[in-house]
Specification:
The structure is a single chain. With 246 residues, the protein is of the alpha+beta class. It has 2 domains: 132 residues, no CATH class; 102 residues, no CATH class. Helices cover 42% and strands 17% of the residues. It contains 9 helices and 7 strands. A 4-stranded mixed beta sheet has the order 1-3-2-4. Strand 2 and strand 3 form a beta hairpin. It is globular and about 55 Å long.
């Protein structure tokens, strides 16, 4: 297996994308995770492994995803996902666990990831969880495709929503990827049950040109991707963040 100490999440994901494109003959926007999973054992990233079994329902309800090695056969690995999650979240979780396989399997034989670790990329999450998220984001939302789609266009909710569908990811995942990727000036705020509890998330990008605002409300979580002219709601969130952090 490649030296994981020198292998970054983005480098690993981009290398795999190149392999897929050579095999398929096209630079598809939608990444075929079955092709990735089935092909990895035959690459330097899957050295010593014969098979990664198809994803199965997780037996642990609190787990969003798991990557495990067969204790009786170290050449066999398996992925488990939360069957109650949306198809987009399950897809991201599978990519996340494949990230653990490529980057971290020399360190341990079992990975049990909760929802915060898999989807939010918070600074409070462990280093390997953030790396697996970064790998998944790069694999599912290729940088060159994303760049082509947002160049010379006004970035708004319609464009971001359409991109999420194109990539087969959730709107939250697309916004996080966009905010890290764009060269435009942007802020990402996360509200949990009405409170801006993930203030650190908005520090992931502060770039150099204005972009359009975007927001999302789910059952208990609200996301906002705001431009330089921050809306009153976002501004209130910023003030609340400042107060909560002194």
């Amino acid at each position: 297996m490649s030296d994981s100490a020198q292998l970054t999440p983005s480098k690993a994901a981009n290398t795999i994308l190149r392999w897929i494109r050579v095999a398929s003959g096209e630079a598809a926007a939608f990444t075929d995770l079955d092709m990735v999973r089935e092909g990895l054992p035959g690459t330097p990233y899957g050295e010593g492994v014969k098979i990664i079994k198809p994803p199965m329902a997780s037996p642990i309800k609190s787990s969003e995803g798991m990557l495990v090695c067969n204790p009786d056969d170290p050449t066999e690995w398996g992925i488990f996902v939360n069957e109650d999650s949306s198809s987009e979240r399950r897809r991201f979780t599978i990519a996340h666990e494949l990230g653990h396989f490529v980057l971290h399997r020399a360190k341990r034989r079992t990975f049990n990831c909760d929802k915060a670790a898999v989807h939010l990329s918070l600074e409070s999450a462990g280093v390997i969880e953030r790396e697996a998220d970064e790998f998944a984001s790069n694999l599912l939302m290729p940088g060159d495709v994303l760049r082509d789609r947002i160049t010379s266009q006004d970035v708004d909710l319609y464009l971001l929503s359409g991109l999420a569908k194109t990539f087969g990811v959730s709107f939250e995942a697309l916004c996080i990827r966009f905010i890290k990727f764009t060269e435009k000036r942007a802020i990402l705020l996360h509200w949990d049950n009405g409170f801006p509890s993930a203030c650190k998330v908005m520090r992931i990008a502060c770039c150099q040109a204005p972009c359009s605002a975007a927001s999302l409300t789910t059952k208990s979580t609200r996301w906002s991707c705001a431009a330089c002219e921050i809306s009153n709601t976002v501004a209130s969130g910023l003030r609340a963040c400042r107060r909560s952090h002194g």
